[in-house]
Amino acid sequence: MIGDVLTSSILFEAIRKKYPEAELHYLIYPHTKPVIENNPFIDKVISFHPQKYKNPFNFLKFLFKIRKEKYQVVIDVYSKANSAIITGFTNAEMRISYKKWYTSFLYNRVFNRNIKPEIEAGVAIEKRLQFLKPLNLSPTLAIKPKIYLTEEESLKAKSILDDKGLLGETSLFMISVLGSSSEKTYPAEYLAELLDVIVQETSGNLLFNYIPSQTEKALKVYNHCLPGTQQHIHLKIFGKSLREFMALTSYCDAMIGNEGGAINMAKAINIPTFAIFSPSIKRINWNIYEDGLKQVSTHLEDYFPEEFKNKSKQQIRKKTPALYKKFKPHFIKPYLIKFLERLK
User: Per its UniProt record, what SUPFAM superfamilies does this chain match (predicted)?
Assistant: First the structure.
């Protein structure tokens, strides 16, 4: 996923500072590439096409292509069956990943995925930083994920917003209107209530993060908003690509809405965020660099801890629709208002 790829990119900066002459490659899914474009610490990006490599012959050809690179160190952050096979096939001297009973034999340095946070960066960062230990790098080194926009991308986004008069004294907010799936998406009618609050408190303008195929879902949120709020929503302005979305976001005062890749991207361009976590996601795993001031999140567990006590991930996922129903806007509104006040 995009958030995973962006977060894992911190390893490149850390390694480059310790080993400036090293050649560093990143193996990723093609759709995630925009978040690491222009990263000065990555020498080469290798795309893994899941549909193409379902064919055993194609996958075998890919494995031999990777082996020819003669890697000395491979860090497998994905830690799934196919990435474990790739890692093992490299014959790298050092093969690093998470400890799992069914793949550990393919690595020679493994680490526990279940850790308690010790630094403000958060568990998602700390789990990755521990992979640096075999390379004699400090696991407490806090390097933030960064997105590198070009001047041309920034100027184009500025021009789009200027043409619509959205870069004046009035606040501008990017709304993470949809999660990556239905179980990670706050109910439309609830989110609309929060958008009403944003406009009432700030008189700000709102942009929606969506793509054309999601228009119907975005409109569902829009249609639940008060008429006065709708006048502040600019549905026709959206990122035609992931890079354009990030460039538009860089001019916003904050990103507000569903937790996910969009929130992680906003953090990587130093934009304040207010994230609403899905009940099915453990907040401790993804509330990276939260300070309770300009990087804030909320989770149903804050209000109904008994719903999560002694429950497995599978049990919670089955109950997600019902849990979302309990996550009513009135729980979130006071914290959202305080967040908005701190932005003034």
Answer: UDP-Glycosyltransferase/glycogen phosphorylase
